[in-house]
Fold this sequence. Notes:
It is a single chain. By secondary structure, the protein is an alpha/beta fold. The chain is globular, with a radius of gyration of 20 Å. It has helices at about 35-45, 55-65, 85-100, 120-130, 195-200, 225-235; strands at about 5-10, 25-30, 30, 50-55, 105-110, 135-140, 150-155, 160, 185-195, 210. The strands form 3 sheets. The protein has a 6-stranded mixed sheet with strand order 4-1-5-9-6-10, sandwiched between helices. It folds into 2 domains: about 5-140 and about 185-235, Alpha-Beta Complex (Spore Coat Polysaccharide Biosynthesis Protein SpsA, Chain A), CATH 3.90.550; about 145-180, no CATH class. The protein is built from 6 helices and 10 strands. It is about 25% helix and about 20% strand.
Amino acid sequence: MVTGGSVLAIVPARGGSKGIPRKNVRDVAGHPLIAYSIAAGLASSRIDRVLVSTDNAEIAEAARAYGAEVPFMRPAELAADDTRDLPVFIHALQWLEERERYRPDVIVHLRPTSPLRRVADIDRAIDLLASDPRADAVRGVCEPFQNPYKMWRIAAGGELVPLLQGEFAEPYNQPHQQLPPVYWQTGYIDVARRTTLVDQGSMTGTRILPLRLDADSWIDIDTPAALDYADFLLRTGRAQVAMPERVVAHGGRSD
């Protein structure tokens, strides 16, 4: 727990994936993709509950089978292609408060598309938030493969325009060692206080602490090739993660 408070992990998993149909329940090294995020949350010594928010019966069945709570089905209007994270999380928090009088102090965001998540990093993120009472959230970041000071936009007239100008001329022609260090948000782990979501209406607030990750320690599955690569890493043991364990027999009920 965090300073005596309750920690809730939420795994948001809608059923309408178009790039990879049925993505969240596709087999990865013998288990549905979503099972890896559930297993990581259950293995964390800091997390009290692991909940899956989904609109899809197949995902709900798989989530329960691997030990997650699925106390409600997400409304269809919160499962569209353009639905943002915040209303999904607010819906879950309001449901828990209204039906169970449960108000977690800290929310851990475990995206199912990051199956290579290390339990130690989850605990480290939660501890980092607890270490700074003024912090609103913690976000996992890594150094990007390319510095945005060397990136461009195409203007209306068709010419290239620097994406960022910075404090010096022509940053795109500078050696990368002389450019300001930047970090990419990985989607690997986010942790926020409940007050950040509910009172500030934000997933991260304004004071966000970085959890620095190695660039090669995570994967975001949004293509079939990434799904195959994660399967390879897990089957060969190259990725060391908390392995999923089915706790409900196939086709069985959790209640």
